[in-house]
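Protein fold
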Amino acid sequence: MPLDLYIKLKKSLGYELKKDNQDLNRFIEELPYKLKIEVSLYIYESRYSKIKFFKDKGSASFISWMCPLLKPEYFGSNAFIYQEGDDIKEIHFLISGTGGFVLPSFRCCAYISIEEGDNFGVMDIIGST
């Protein structure tokens, strides 16, 4: 395995393991409904409070249902998440850092900026159906 691929894999696995909440999610699922919502909102506040998508979705039950479904993923600096022709199957919510839509044929000139709290992938999924 090439060294750069190994480093990317190691960083990604380390990040996901650090953020893995499967045991916690199973525990929360066993709680009574109202307590489950309250605990879930407390635990995931650092995620949903940074995502603009949740700001206009005031329902606590929707947020507490969605947050455990979000899977953390790490992308290094100057990484391409999607490239032209890729089959887009997921929506990404940017929790930290910055991103952008770029034109590789024009020295990766950014034409759309993505900032913390933004999401992307929605239009790509809709457009591919």
Notes: The chain has a mean pLDDT of 78.
